[in-house]
Amino acid sequence: MPVFKTEAIVLGRTDYSNSSQIVTFYTRNHGKIRTIAKGFKRSSGKRSPKAVDLLTHYQILFIKKEHSSLHILTDAILQNNYPPFRNDLDKYYKASCIAELLNEFTEEDASSGPLFDICLHALSGISIHADTIVPLLAFEIKMLKILGYLPELRHCVHCKNNIQYISRTYFSAKEGGVICNECQEMLKGGILVPVGAVLIARRLADFNIQRMDRVKIQSSICIEIEKMLRYYIVFILNKKLNSWKYMNLDENVLWVP
Ligand SMILES: [Zn+2]
After folding, report:
1. How far is the CA of 186 from the centre of ligand 1 (A)?
2. Chain region(s) in the chain for CATH 2.40.50.140
3. 149 CA to middle of ligand 1, Å?
4. What global pTM score does this model have?
5. CA 129 to CA 122: how far, in whole Å?
6. Dist. CA 220 → ligand 1 center (Å)
7. How many whole angstroms from 240 Cα to the centroid of ligand 1?
8. Measured in angstroms, how far is the CA atom of residue 181 from the centroid of ligand 1?
9. For 214-230, what is the HEC assignment?
10. Among 53, 20, 51, 52, which Cα is nearest to 37's?
11. From ligand 1's centre to the CA of 155, what distance in Å?
């Protein structure tokens, strides 16, 4: 059976036996994979030298099983455990949101180096910076773009008018993007989103991730973008993310039509 080496982020763990766990990773070369990790579980409060932690970056070695989706983890070498996630709940839940999005939106064994890169960049941004919302928003929008889910944010999806010249804009998950006031009256549905928030969301989709550290966005605009993305993500996944319960962006953000 072939042995592979790749960078990986731990998305989730579940107990399998007294000493083993099933660990889900998002990897640079193999996309999402599930592995059985024998001897990696902490027992009796003792730290196993081989234990793997959630939301941590490793270089892993695994044996790929050809006729099973459960592979065998043989080694995990720590690259970055992002210490701020362990003592700052805001950072922890935003990082958890990234792990949950990757878990929900990706298929097993579907490789995506660019998605792995933006994940690492977002985790690093959330870990280092006081402003944790911009790295999360950038990740969400870029993930949607890479996976082919980016909604139309330049023109009204119905009449094709450029939204820069529209005073009142709505976002319709069903229509797949922004709609102008006149089209919304006809099509119905959608949520009201300020034009400024839509334009900044569109810019985030195209922005070079290496330069994201310099981006500053007004918090009221961030809330509007996150509200729009949550509404859209619920439409795609047909459910809310667990991590949203713990992220107090704004009480209205939890509202989903
Ligand atoms: Zn229109």
Report:
1. 9
2. 1-81
3. 21
4. 0.91
5. 10
6. 25
7. 29
8. 7
9. HCCCCHHHHHHHHHHHH
10. 20
11. 8
Strands 3-15 and 20-27: antiparallel
Instruction: Determine the 3-state secondary structure of 52 from DSSP.
Output: coil
d(CA 226, ligand 1 centre) in Å? 23
User: Per-residue pLDDT tens for 80-135?
Assistant: 999 999 999 999 999 999 999 999 999 887 878 999 999 999 999 999 998 899 99
HSE at residue 144, side-chain half, CA atoms within 13 A, is 24
Centre of ligand 1 to C-alpha 11, Å, is 40
Q: Does residue 50 surpass a pLDDT of 80?
A: no
Output phi, psi for 161, to 5 deg.
-70, 140
Closest CA to 244 of 115, 57, 96, 35: 96
- The half-sphere exposure of 8 on its side-chain side, counting CA atoms within 13 A, is 30
Q: How far is the CA of 219 from the centre of ligand 1 (A)?
A: 28
Rounded Cα distance, 230 and 241, in Å: 9
Architecture of domain 1-81: Beta Barrel (2.40)
CA of 197 to the centre of ligand 1 (A): 18
